[in-house]
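Protocol step 4 of 6.
Sequence for peptide chain release factor N(5)-glutamine methyltransferase (Galdieria sulphuraria) entered exactly as in the expression construct, tag removed. Do not edit the line below.
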Amino acid sequence: MFVSIACNVLNKSWLLIGTRRGCVQVFLPNRYHKTVNKPSNYVSCSSQLSETELRDKLRVCSTTKELVTRLSEVFVQQGVPESRLSAEYIVATSFGLSRKQLLRGEPTLLSQLEPFYSTLTHNALRRLLREPVQYIVGNWDFYNLTLKVRQPVLIPRPETEELVDRILKFWKNVLRRGSTGEVTRCLEIGCGSGAISLSLLKGWKEFTGNNNILKVTALDIDPQAITLTKENACIVLEDEQKRLLDIHLQDITKFRLDDNKYDFLVSNPPYIPEAEYRTLQPEVIQYEASCALLGGKDGMEIIRVILRGAKNWLKTGGTIWLEVDPSHPKLIQDFLHKEPNVGVELLQVFEDMSGLARYCKLLVI
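Step 5 output, structure tokens:
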């Protein structure tokens, strides 16, 4: 097999992102980072590497430590971002280990077993083609859960963990005041891998105690996202929690309620503006579903649908939690002034860990 690799690489920095559990390196460009009013800066890179040549480069290694170093060097030569960490994850996955297990253990002596090198070479070639490490590994940590991830469903980002954390802390305070009933109902629009809904269900009892039950309805327009959410629910939820989750394939523009309204809505909608979407790195634009990223000309297309429908879906006093582009809080405020009949008020805007306006909390009035 001969692989020709030719791609345009965006000349932007890759970010070391700190989460509440420490530092996590992200193997794809931060889709939320935006350079305003600057043209995209691409560097052309091309490489040709055969499977046999790659395998020969790796076979000279006698330990896993040497193997990680050699593979990292190959990635550097081929212009793959985060070369060392990519190599660590790929070697670990090929051994059937986690990265932590690989790094904690003693350097393992390697044999020339063909199955191992076939798997390693296959995974390394996928990374050389700029496939995100998350898809190669097949799972990723999100808010104390390990979730399956699979192309083309959106890979959960650390920014969204912070959104989950804010929602849980908010409801902890609400329920302490005794200002709600025994059941709280949540609607998630655009569930993707299920990261938000599943994290809320898993964290609800810890944050709010045993006096309130959370019921979640998770919607997505992508059948592959619905399938992945169901798979992850089966993995991470207890039987009792599974009964509290409804997952539906649904176009939000046609969503109608059949029963009681919801107490709050959460969404990490597609919000990247068209102009910015065209500048994203290959890891994103070639592998993740555009319907989970692209939000129309100004990134507000689905956000407007959500705001217009919120009064029909939520109780009066219900809250809306959105992850947005930093340009959106002002656009949302302008939209609400122009269309006051939607019955929604912007309450607060929160910054993410990078200091960018990332989250909007709104109220149905």
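Step 6, annotate. Residues 1-29, 31-47 have pLDDT under 50 and may be disordered.
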